[in-house]
TrEMBL record:
Pfam families: Xan_ur_permease (PF00860). The keyword Transport applies. This is NCS2 family permease. It is a multi-pass membrane protein. Keywords: Cell membrane, Membrane, Transmembrane, Transmembrane helix, Transport.
Length: 447
């Protein structure tokens, strides 16, 4: 009797999963989806260690950010699975978190509450673009060379921050920057972490970043630089960061460029990831359209808004989701498994509190490597394409600002195309953005 009851319960459970996710129609099974979810989680769980470490540089409570990072990653991924039925997980974006902490707050002197407000308004802009169905129109009308330049520029900026956090690159009054003490413990462990990630990734190890963080943190503990704080505890309070954003203060006209940058970069990042992962899962058509695209874009946008309100940086679809796809993940069940694991991770806050800055530095440098690889897509033989990409990319680390890099990129694109008589290649979208940035330089920055 018990066996019959168990068999009936199992059949009912399988029937529910089939109705929700159409497993057979996608050529997958519940077991495969669970394995895919675990795989994706292991490749992206590093964000719960790295994100609090980065945002702490802005003065935010590390433990609270750890919890909000887990919460928004868990909730966003589960919503993606339930509403869009896609094997794509969400979490706070690498790159924009560093831009927020090191540039907007530490560099420009704004409070983290105002900085979080700019993230919120940027996310709201992205949500409005999604609801008005102009998101893909924007992507289609912004030239590839600028999109590539933006991605590479963020990568260079992230790499610079990683090198600085590990003490590999330090300030110098004579040469602006110079090499730090390469024999110091943070520098050695930071370099070790970076090369471990690169080597493991080259050998196809999905959890390379996580392994490197664990190894470098453990070595830091063995050398007395890290204090052991335990493994499991009740989740810390999120009150120090939850709902603490300054919405009115962040509406200052001088912050318009920053808000636009958060919106534009998040638009490229998330949309590109959604297309890339669904294409790898053979769910997208030749034009990049995939099932439940509207729902996926909506979940992505709403998660970004929710993340800012909860007290964490811009949320996006994670390219690491492709690791789960590689082992057979095809439906939203994969994303739900990832989300549940992130929610479970909330109870491991003591582990996150032990991770030193140099342990996360290797991940930042590695992300920079990946993002700079986009430069291979630039037509370097065509200066009207090469110059805008180059100026966009180099201006971000040299000006320590994503906003200025985007601005110079759009303006230089128009200048090069118009100056060589190819003004017909300048579409209205690029021209309008370039003119807005010119007005920003003339009327906002000069006053």
């Amino acid at each position: 009797m018990n066996q019959q009851h168990q068999a009936a319960s199992q059949a009912a459970g399988q029937g529910l999963l089939e109705r929700l996710f159409a497993l057979k129609g996608h050529g997958t099974t519940a077991r495969t989806e669970v394995i895919a979810g675990i795989t994706t989680f292991l490749t992206m769980v590093y964000i719960v260690f790295v994100n609090p470490q980065i945002l702490s540089a802005a003065g935010m409570d590390t433990q609270a950010v750890f919890v909000t990072t887990c919460l928004i990653a868990g909730i966003g991924s589960i919503l993606m699975g339930l509403l869009a039925n896609l094997p794509i997980a969400l979490a706070p974006a690498m790159g924009l978190n560093a831009f927020f902490a090191f540039v907007v707050v530490a560099g420009m002197g704004y409070s983290w509450q105002i900085g979080m407000g700019t993230i919120f308004w940027g996310a709201m802009g992205l949500l409005i673009l999604t609801l008005l169905r102009v998101r893909y129109w924007l992507i289609a009308n912004i030239p590839l060379t600028l999109r590539v330049g933006i991605t590479a520029g963020i990568g260079l900026l992230i790499a610079l921050l990683g090198l600085h956090n590990a003490g590999i690159v330090v300030a110098s009054p004579a040469t602006m920057v110079t090499v730090g003490d390469l024999t110091s413990l943070p520098c050695l462990l930071g370099l070790l972490g970076f090369f471990l990630i690169c080597i493991f990734s080259a050998r196809g190890v999905h959890s390379a970043v996580l392994i490197a963080i664990v190894v470098t943190t453990t070595l830091g503990w063995l050398f007395g630089d890290v204090t052991f704080k335990g493994f499991v505890s009740m989740p810390p309070s999120i009150e120090p960061v939850f709902g603490q954003l300054d919405l009115m203060g962040s509406l200052d006209i001088s912050l318009a460029g920053i808000i636009f940058s958060f919106m534009l970069v998040n638009l490229f990042d998330s949309s590109g990831t959604l297309i890339g992962v669904t294409n790898r899962a053979k769910l997208a058509d030749d034009k990049g359209h995939f099932p439940r695209m509207k729902q996926a874009l909506l979940v992505d946008s709403v998660s970004s808004v929710g993340g800012a309100f909860m007290g964490t940086s811009s949320v996006t679809a994670f390219i690491e989701s492709s690791s789960g796809v590689a082992v057979g993940g095809r439906t939203g069940l994969t994303a739900i498994v990832v989300g549940l694991l992130f929610l479970l991770a909330i109870f491991f806050s003591p582990v996150a509190a032990m991770v030193p800055a140099y342990a996360a530095a290797g991940a930042l440098i590695y992300v920079g490597v990946l993002m700079c690889s986009e430069l291979t897509r630039v037509k370097w033989e065509d200066l009207t394409e090469a110059v805008p990409a180059f100026m966009t990319a180099v201006m971000m680390p040299f000006s320590f600002s994503i906003t200025e890099g985007i601005a110079i990129g759009f303006i230089s694109y128009c200048v090069m195309k118009a100056g060589t008589g190819r003004w017909r290649e300048i579409n209205p979208c690029v021209l309008v953005v370039a003119l807005l940035f010119v007005l920003k330089f003339v009327w906002v920055d000069s006053h």
